[in-house]
Amino acid sequence: MTRKWTVSMHNFTSRTTVWVAVTLVAGLTLAVATKRIAAEEKVGYRWHHEPGTELALRFGEKTILAYHFAADGGFPYVHPLSTSDGTCLTELAPDDHPWHRGVWFSWKYLNDVNYWNWENDSKQLVPIGQTVRIDNEVVSLEAKQAKIVMKLKYTNGGQATLKERREIIVRMPRDDGSYTLDWRATFTAVGKDVVLDRTPLLGQP
Questions:
Q1: By the 8 A CB rule, do 22 and 11 touch?
Q2: How many helices (H) and strands (E) in the chain?
Q3: Distance between terminal CA atoms of the chain?
Q4: pLDDT in tens, 140-191
Q5: Model's pTM, two decimal places?
Q6: Which of 37, 50, 58, 74 has the maximal Cβ count within 10 Å?
């Protein structure tokens, strides 16, 4: 498996597994399953959108899923992500990885700059590289699904290195209680090619 990828200014594409071409596109689908839902229970599900803050799937006053637009520690994120009976599957800022935010995404290194975790000697609780939202989110709400489109940029010292278009589709729970969250991202380099890298595993360079 390739250890590094390069995003070209001319763009290149990938889905789930990454391949090089011209705009990097990555896709992810989360399927959450739980008990069967009675018809009268299903009526209780609803979308709750607070512009600039979050989009949530709720059942009564219980939040099943919430996507937070405003970056916390540098990242938009999903928390909670729960089964439709309310069992939470995510954790926010665990003690051993306090920069983790439920279900979230960031590159580890872009051109050797850390965009993932806080540096050991950092006095700020954010990475050196910053994930910054561009403009407000666009949210489309329908009876059976909600769609979020966001634009983000990855910056170092105020200068953008990489742009991202993020599209997330959340579908209402089915009769068996399962639901899906589709996450698709398109990345484009800004100004020059960008090298995407990771923390090497033990024994790797």
A1: yes
A2: 1, 14
A3: 14
A4: 999 999 999 999 999 999 999 999 999 999 999 998 889 999 999 999 999 8
A5: 0.81
A6: 74
